[in-house]
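step 4 of 6: structure.
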Amino acid sequence: MSALFDNIINHINQIGACALIVIGLYIVVMHTNMIKRIIGINIFGTGVFYFFVSIGYVRGGQIPIVNGDESGVMINPLPSVLILTGIVVVVSITVYAMSLVIKIYEGYGTMDQAEITRMKSGENND
Amino acid sequence: MKRFIPVLFFALFLALTYAVLQMPPAGTIDAPSYNHTTEHYLANALEETGATNVVAAILTDYRAWDTLGETIVLFTAIVAVISVLRKRPTAEVIRDE
Amino acid sequence: MNDIIVKTVARIIVPFIQMYGIFVILNGHISPGGGFAGGALIGVSLILYTLVFGVGAAEKKFSHRLGDLSESGGILIYLLIGSVGIVSGGYFLTNLEAGFLKGETGALLSGGMIPLLMVAIGIKVTSTIITLFHAMIEEDPS
Amino acid sequence: MIELLPLINMMILLVTALLIVFIPIKRFGVIKIIGSLAFSLVLIFSVVTLLHVQANGAISYIFGGYERFIGVELYIDVFASLFTFFIGLLGLLTFIYSIGYVHKEVEKTQYSRYYVLIFILFFAAYGIIYTNDLFNTYVFMEILSLTACGIVSIKRKRKNYMASFRYLILNEIGSLSFLFGTALLYMITGYTNITLVNDALQDVWHLYPVNIVVASGFMIVGVGIKAAIFPFHVWLPDAHSSAPIPSHAILSAVVLKLNLIVLVKVLYNVFGANVMTSLNIPLFTGVIAGTGMIMGSVFAIAQHDIKRILAYSSVAQVGYIVLGISLMTHLGQAASYFHVFSHGMMKSALFFSAGCIIYVSGVRDVRKYNGMFKLMPLPVITFSLAALGMIGIPLTSGFLSKYYLGMAALDANQGIFVLVIIISSILNAIYYLPIVIRSFLQEPSSELNEISDSSIPYTMMIPVSIFAILILVLGIYPGILTDIIDGAIMSVVGGWQ
């Protein structure tokens, strides 16, 4: 049993990331409100980025600023670089989704996708 | 039926944690992802790029193509948002035809 | 939002925020930070200016035209810096072999093309944040 | 100098996009000239790279002159240059077509933004095919999904906003699960370069098999969502049918194919076939492809709007390509690449001719197509030629791709798929033939008889006829394409048997 607990403690970051991912997916799948879906996408994105950064973590490692004197063990810088790029991508996707929601609210008068599909099938103006 | 979906997602979470427990442990030097690429970055980022901040060195020198791709993501986000939001000279309604 | 206290405090704070943003951009290759964080800082200071002094005044400070120019300008600067590598016979986006001066470690002007790229990214992120904010504010309820 | 050509291709597309931002709205003619110049240059350079790469091997271009395990690498082999040539050709013809069509769909103020989005979409398309780096593929996939949603929502109608929002949310889930797969692979191999990941995987996969199963699951599902493979195609009909006609052609022929190319790269270059077959993933993708082929056509039968019919038939055709890939044999790959080409030609011909008909008569409902042949002979001819191709009548490229797929399925002794192909072709006939028959044989209805196809600008007719001729040429002389495809398969890591 204690081996299992050690194993869990070793992987606690990744388990947390998997929790965020599943929560994000749940929100996107279950809620029909558009703003909640965007929040779900952000949680899902944060979970994936948290998982990616936790790969590069070294317990007791220093930040990768190399000022000549070889001071000690440093963390793996590559995942944090890739996540810097990833965060900007999710931000720009959220901005675009928000601007779409503004215009959809003007057009349909509601934020709820289920209602909009009902309105559309009701009018069947396709 | 409604009660069943949260259980499904919890089962997915358990499956993911079971999978994660078998993955290589993070937080130590001997993790397989801490290989000669990382050692190369940490060892000679200073004399290959002249920057002390290794993250900035990777971001704008070793992998500068990703950062160019990313500024283009920002550029497309602006063009897309402006095409949706910017005021129009003729104020016709956005209802369908 | 023409409360006198807010205006005077904003008029004092905004330049310092921008100063700190420029510091973070230029010191990107020495201390943590860099083009994205610094650009966001300057963008936020312009948003503060728009909130306090209204969109009309902000329009003079950062017009649509300047927004368009600085967006594609940021990327064009990036491409020019990258093509210096090709002109000097190497690959796209090469740093020190392409003749960028290395400077001594830890100084502001060290690191070859890295500070230049950081400035280009800073311009790009600033214009992104402020143009998006202006687009959302001026959005017409048609 | 030749190694620089792929990079010059991408830079031309990017710089054109950046320059169009500066062009004032009223000078639309300048956009036309710059755009067609840029696309034709890119097409010429793609052909030159294809010939160069066929002659003396793949180009490996690493940014900054570092080694492969440090920098980001562009790897241009016959596979990459073949598909960039195809996408360049589609881009040029779609651009010429869209010049005549855009004023009918997009407002005047939106022209420059629309073309900026199109050029950045093709920049991302070239980026995805060229890169040999997993994280870089993720970044370019994000640019692709952002521009594709931008093209759909350019029409500023609430239907477009809704379709674009649903497309964006599902696309975002797809891209992030692809990134999650990359993270899992980085975790055990320590590289993001595709060839290095593949080499490291061969000897490490028995150590951490769980990682690979979860990573391949997330990646295939992620790419599947973006490529609208059957169970995840929910977003496709609305997004494609509400988009303007030129962008409908781009979305269907270019964006779907790109995600399938990423699927090929993931299945063959990243994991490699023996790792895949040992985890029997291809069986799973094969079953999905089979159901997709049939269900996609079944949905299409129920539709009446021509654009929704074409959207659902795209879902079915994606099933053909995924079927070819999941057979995991040389013949299977050859059949799916050939179908990528022939589907691109046929689907674009269908879109453009339907666009010409809508341009003149505004008729979108298929039931009102009677007598179209007497009113507009040329677009109806190209439409019916492409429709016969989709059904699989001999002498068209559609027949050949179904024939190659059948042979590949038999060769991989999975005969059941031959039956699936036949059923799907019959279903295609059920919804394409009535349109063709109605437009040829019946009399035109009264209020339509004063229009004629003289009013269609020549810039729209040229691309339509080029596509129609290419369908026939590919149908009769497939040899020119098939031996390039064999070269492409040899260059894909693990091209064997």
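step 5 of 6: annotate
 - The mean pLDDT of chain B is 83.
 - The first helix of chain B runs from residue 4 to 21.
step 6 of 6: archive
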